[in-house]
């Protein structure tokens, strides 16, 4: 092929950076790779159900959660109450469904907060100014000794029991942890020859952090953040039990556990259900992190590499075709379409 | 000690790494195995040592002095490794334990395989260190305190301290600079000759191989594509891979007679 | 080999009395000079080989020459003006030079496609020109063309390699990609730090030919004083004999021998050089 033509229609940067193009197509390949493994499949199903139940519970639960029946307390599972009732006669399944929304929100916010905090700290830790980096390393080491529970108890003084207590305590604690775990990986990338060349070419430190360092710590981030999500589910249960977590009246899995755990000797089933849900979700999140790491990393996932290469090739080729027919100057859409279809028809083993 | 590899095939997850490899090292012979990266040459060494990846499926036969390696249990292989078989690896900085002193690393195979008194062990360790050209006062240093060449000398001492009868050297000079490379190769050849052991020398560089081995095998994509006397292959390689390797070696070396360089 | 017409031109890069001292173990007692009072000059269009065993200071010297390290004594001048931290000469030296490292897989981001890695210096240059921090709206066609062109120059099929990841490449291919990345901004000085020692001997020849053709191309330019100069660092005389015009032999931070490649090969004056020659014979 000839590359000498100068008046070719604009291809756009996406043609050369196929690594960044077609986010949806990329995600499709990633999900397909995860689905191929049993652990990935399990985690995807459980997490999809979690999200689904959270959405559905906003509009509908089998029994409205505030409907209680004093004559039907501690009931065994039945046709009316699939998982039975608790000590107030409320439907356990409905409460668990409603609780899933709260827990999902807590997990997402905690992950978001810890991710942001962690990356911010890592950015300071790999800073080229040794004053900044050493100060932050010492600061993180000092702060990490502060237990999450203690932090939550302190936060509960001004805030009272609330979601914010759980989110901030988890986000803060996990963010510090994340920074410590990600730092060596980020340093490895920061001292690599490719970063040296990028710096020599005049690429700024912030851009190097965003484009070289972050992509190269994504495998660690995937595992750590999904473990944090799992741990935040456990933390919610623990903090709610202590009375500083989710306030009474707001359904959550921790709440369901707390209200029934005193009666575990008498009515074990009422404790079993929320316990089962929490365990399933935490296991799923941990497996999800591993599966996502393997699937999203082009270094380990050859299928993803092949997909990206094929998509880029078809984008380049479509640029050539347009050059030959030389018809439209609105080539952007064509390229995007070519990328989409290119990604649709490639095989990834 | 002789090594007989017959029809060795190795595949990992359905991908063929080695394809019916036949290779012979007679007692006291120095044999070279040459191939570009990814040709599977290291996998042959690992198969002989019994350290091929657990996911690999092997077939064929590997006889070391009549003992079948394939299917042998770990225990008897471990007894063989480091006592009658010695190994030298490519990168001495990772082959040596960074937190142990050179002396104790060289001593380790003796401790593992023989019941010797401390004095006897000490005598043997100092003897081999002198043979590989390491000063006695370097025995107490850690690997990072040594240069690359000294590290490789220490690694060779570790491999040879038990007077093995078969030595496998997997690219022992690749990580070193040209002058050190030459020194290490010459050292290895003289030590092997002194002890009368057999040597399987793996490399990708014909100019190194030509100094080491009388007979060599050329490996490409897991198959032996050519074998014969090193000198005759050097003069008239018959396979395309052989021609590439020999041509590269000729182009990247000077002529020994000091004449007009380069142009062959 | 090359008959370069450099006699009348001014050196593009001059280093005078360059010295760099590393304090070992943090103590002042055991200070040893990695580079000890070295004078270097590089002509436009010239290929200078710096030869020496590991630890002889060749990498330190190269980093001093490109202004990546500050010398403890001595000075570097680029196109006649002294290279000082933050000076205009330092900036133009950084802009006009490019690096190739020993390990190609360490010099390409494993999570970037080759096309993106090769385009990175171009994009950075574009941002610098426009002075805009978030400058991305460059003409992608032009960019793709230049990336493809430079990939063809190093004998990599752009159609296949532009969208490939480093892990799908062999050592030789990855090193070609790294060379393409260095060449894409049309540098005046190319610094190759042991570009062949981490790859197979058979692939080394290919890299050597690529570097030779790049030098030949830059010499064919109308104005020879605009040609690209190359500093190639190696421990192997055999590798650089075909490409270098001049050889500088380093030992323990000092220049032990210097001269045209043919002279060094035919009449080595130092015993260390003779060892190097002996090591490079078949």
End-to-end C-alpha gap of chain B: 39 Å
Order of helices and strands of chain C: EEEHEEHEHHHHEHEHEEHH
Q: What's the CATH C level of the domain at 3-93 and 166-251 in chain B?
A: Alpha Beta
* Reported CATH architecture of chain C: 3-Layer(aba) Sandwich
Q: Quick one: how many beta strands of chain B?
A: 10
Question: Strand pairing plus helix content of chain B: what structural class?
Answer: alpha/beta
How do the strands of the widest beta sheet of chain B line up side by side?
6-7-8-3-9-10
Mean pLDDT of chain C: 84
Instruction: Give the percentage of residues in beta strands of chain C.
Output: 15-25%
Under the CATH scheme, which class of chain C?
Alpha Beta
The CATH superfamily of chain C appears as P-loop containing nucleotide triphosphate hydrolases
Number of helix segments of chain C? 10
- Give the fraction of residues assigned to helices of chain B: 25-40%
- Using the coordinates shown, work out and report the CATH topology of chain C: Rossmann fold
Structural class by secondary-structure content of chain C: alpha/beta
What would you call the shape of chain C? globular
Low-confidence stretches of chain C: 1-7, 26-30
**What's the CATH topology label of the domain at 3-93 and 166-251 in chain B?**
Rossmann fold
Supply the CATH architecture of the domain at 3-93 and 166-251 in chain B: 3-Layer(aba) Sandwich
Order of helices and strands of chain B: EEEHEEHEHHHHEHEHEEHH
Pfam families (chain A): BPD_transp_1 (PF00528)
Biased composition (Basic and acidic residues) (chain A): 331-349
Region (Disordered) (chain A): 316-349
Transmembrane segments (chain A): 42-60, 104-124, 136-157, 163-182, 266-288
